[in-house]
Amino acid sequence: MSEIGSSCRVQYDLRPAKQVERRMIVDALQRLAAAGFPIADYQYTGFGAIYFVDFILFHKLLGMSKLLSLEQQTSLARRVDFNKPFSCVDTKMVPASSEIPNLSRDTRHIVWLDYDGVLHKNQLSDIQSAATILSPGSILLVTVDVEPPEDYDYKEVDPDFDSSKEVLGPKHWKRYFEYHASAFLSLGLSEEEFGKSKLVLRSTEILKAAFTKAIVARPELQFLPMFNFFYRDSHRMLSMGGMIEGRTEKRLLRASTIKDDSVYYRDSFDSPPFEIIVPRLTRKERLYLDKEMPCSDSWVPKEFDLDAEETRRYRDIYRFLPAFAEILL
Amino acid sequence: MRYASAEVRKQFFIEMFTRDISLEDCVLDLIDNSLDSYLLKHQISISKLIFGPNGTDPSRQLGTIDVTCSDRQVKVVDTCGGIERKRAMEDVFCFGHAEDDQIGKLGAYGVGMKRALFKIGNKFDIVSQTANEGFEVSFKLDEWAEKKEWKIPITFIEGAASERKAGTSITITELHEEVSLRIKQGGVPNNILDDAATTYPFFLDRCVRLQINGNRVAPRPVQLGESEGTVRPAHESFQQDGVKVTLAASVAPGQRTTEQAGWNVLCNGRAVVSADKTRLTGWGVELPAFHTKYTSFVGLASFESDDPLSLPWTTTKRNINQESSVFIRAKGIMAAMSKPILTFLNSQYPSDPRVEAGNIRNAVEGVRGVSFRDIASQPIGGFLFTASRKKEKKTDWVRFQASIVSLDKVRRHLRRPSLSPSDIGKLTFAHYVKTECAAD
After folding, report:
1. CB of A125 within 8 Å of any CB in chain B?
2. B357 Cβ under 8 Å from any chain A Cβ
3. CA nearest A126 in B: which residue?
4. A302 vs B: CB within 8 A
5. In chain A, at which end, N or C, are there fewer CB atoms within 10 A of the end residue's CB?
6. Do A99 and B382 touch (CB under 8 A)?
7. B332: contact with A, CB 8 A cutoff
8. CA distance B243 to B44
9. Are residues A102 and B329, on separate chains, in Cβ contact within 8 Å?
10. What per-residue confidence (pLDDT) applies to B228?
């Protein structure tokens, strides 16, 4: 994990791909609500940092009012408290591992473990705790950074590592992942399997195994995959999640439309993730494109150059894409 | 069709199957049998023993179990009710239970007594009497091993005539050389006493009085801690496959050694695993590896079932069957409930010396003992530490140096030459507040 909390490094509210992800999750939750899941009564537990973007969306768009933000950087306590957007947002200055066992078993939850670091054994442990504890119908989401571990990450594995003498590469990344997640990795993976481009796949496998390990111990329940997002604002990020599903939830989900008309929906972690790619477009281009949306697979704009693939990508996300503008307050 | 031989051989039971268990655990297996007789006779519910009201039930007399262990003989004599002839004829001496056998609460597999006898010695004398009937069995292992049939000679005798005297006596003599050697080395009776004290905390002095070589064994229960308003233990429970699971974890009260820290597992009230800090209970896997800073950690996991075969114990009752589905589920919950406690204990030693950890250390030192029963009667919930609020200060010091000249000036002005510097300070401060500050 990085030494500086991401709330100080990243301007949270200005990450377009992340915002698309949030809006897609809201869209999915709205569909679940329409299918009979009482989403407004769910408790949302997340890492609101000092921006609370997800909290604002969930409260305003889904009517959720049981909201709990966890922050472990105690030096931020006053800022966290100051920035609380609504009185119904509760904040606790504790790590997720301390709060998960206290989540009520009588309530359904949405828990978003929105980590800003690369995979770490503490995160895997939180995921298992959540999948062990959460009541049926609850939704568990996990976000991790899938860039290669950096020097400060690797130092935990090998305190003698000297970045002035050696540059981190697949050999080190393999060791890093084996240190943090050996029980969740397939046997016999070579160093090449830990090359930079393979780390998304490795992280996907590890997260999938972590969800599975905890849920198989609850024989009456299953973990139903729903989300598998891959996106990049600055770092490449992976979000995976789904529902802890009993018989009732299975029936409700079968009747819902979420599976059919949501491009982002993933009911298996074996299929490729939904890749959120935000095309670089001007405001004028977006207005033009929006008029034609939703378009056919082959449609491309005539007034300017945008190939069919980019146009399709825009079609997939235009409903969720924020427009940023400067407002002089 | 041809058939290859796949018969059972006595040598397996005599030489192989006795190697997987310690001498001490063999004696505990014999104590289990005595306890089971008592539980059966009085129809005692394990749940009530663990979670019911404290103390003994005045309506029933305590049983006694006397263990004698020397390099010449191992003897276990109880007044726990005895074994009925029918059970002796059809079940007790068989290896494994038949489907319709009456199974006790602590004897799941039907191997404990036989394995203990075969492990310890060559000559066995067993006398058992209920109030109404009795039997005697005497045989030598080497002679029995030579015979083809799987039978043991039994003689019927009269009953004990009273419920108080009804019981069983097992005497093992002609001890195997290696067993005799271990006992001669010393320490075995002490080990049995220590093991029994931690293995039967819910049974000792509530069902039976146990003595080892004339020394009474006092129960040594697992110490869990809480502190009203500050430290709340974690509590979880669930039922699966006919097994009721109750889990508690907290900070232990009092001074501790690292040996006492870790997870304890009970099956039907009998300790199976004590103070575990290994992968078995998640350490070094879901949890960090054990470290001395976690010395105050304590966890207790209780598995209860009317069908002891559903419990996750191994046949030695000193380990866990890790493929048990109920244990797999419990283990995940045990890890989840342990983490906040480890985070809490970790925070006693902040990496940043400016961080105040005194309140955490005070909380750890301030926990008091709480029974498993009391924790289990609370709603399910995780471990909670509520930092005590710092008392709002009403006063603070004002302390400064003033020149003697200026102090004398004030004294002269007030015409009070003996006024102390401290009184001058108070007077001038009060004067400033009164004349310069707005009223509240």
Report:
1. yes
2. no
3. B336
4. no
5. C
6. yes
7. yes
8. 17
9. no
10. 87
Residue A300 contacts residue A308 (beta carbons within 8 Å):
yes
CATH 3.40.50.150 is the classification of domain A6-276: yes
Give the number of other Cβ atoms within 10 Å of residue B182's Cβ: 18
Q: What is the pLDDT of residue A55?
A: 97
> Which residue reads 């609460």 in tokens?
B105
As given in the structure block, the two tokens for residue B184 are 């001669």
Set of chain B residues whose Cβ sits within 8 Å of the Cβ of A218: 329
Which A residues in the span 254-273 are in contact with B, Cβ-Cβ below 8 Å? none
Nearest CA of chain B to the CA of A136: how many Å?
Answer: 14
In this prediction, residue B389 carries a pLDDT of 64
- The CATH code belonging to domain B224-385 is 3.30.230
Mark which residues 181-200 of A lie under 8 Å from B by CB: 183
Above pLDDT 70, what percent of chain A? Answer: 96
Cα Rg of chain B, angstroms = 32
Please, what's the b/e burial string for B423-438 (b: 16 or more CB within 10 A of its CB; e: otherwise)? ebbeeeeeeeeeeeee
B16 or A288: which carries more pLDDT confidence? A288
One-letter amino acid identity for A76? L
Residue in chain B nearest A217 by alpha carbon: B329
Tokens 């000193």, residue located: B318
Tell me the ipTM for this assembly: 0.81
Where does the pLDDT of residue A13 fall: very low under 50, low under 70, confident under 90, or very high at 90 and above?
A: low
Residues 6+ apart with CB under 8 A from A216: B328
Give the integer Cα–Cα distance in Å for B85 and B189: 31
Q: Does A221 touch chain B (CB under 8 A)?
A: no
Domain-wise residue ranges, chain B: 10-216, 224-385, 404-436
Q: CA angle, B163 as apex, B158 and B168 as ends, to 5°?
A: 60
Residue contacts between A and B (CB atoms, under 8 Å): 64
CA distance A48 to A28: 20
- Report the distance separating Cα B148 and Cα B151, nearest Å: 9
Query: Three-state SS across B258-286?
Result: HHHCEEEEEECCEEEEEEECCHHHCECCC
What is the model's pLDDT at position A1?
A: 41
What CATH code is assigned to B10-216? 3.30.565.10
Cis peptide before A294 (omega within 30 of 0): yes
CA B114 to chain CA mean position, Å: 26
Task: From chain B, pick out residues whose CB is under 8 angstroms from the CB of A183.
Answer: 285
Residue for token pair 């074996």: A270
Instruction: Count the neighbouring beta carbons within 10 Å of the beta carbon of residue A296.
Output: 10
Assess B387–A contact: CB distance below 8 Å, yes or no: no
- For chain A, state the CA radius of gyration: 20
Report the residue of chain A nearest B381, measured CA to CA: A102
A31-63 residue pLDDT tens = 999 999 999 999 999 999 999 999 999 999 999
Ranges in chain B, pLDDT < 50: none
pLDDT at residue A119, as a whole number: 96
Q: Which residues contact A17 (CB under 8 A, 6 or more apart)?
A: A231, A232, A233, A237, A276, A277, A278
Domain ranges within chain A, ordered by starting residue: 6-276, 279-329
CB–CB contact B339 A97 (8 Å): yes
* For range A101-106, the mean pLDDT: 93
Sign of CA dihedral B268, B274, B279, B282: positive
Residues of B in contact with A74 (CB under 8 A): 355
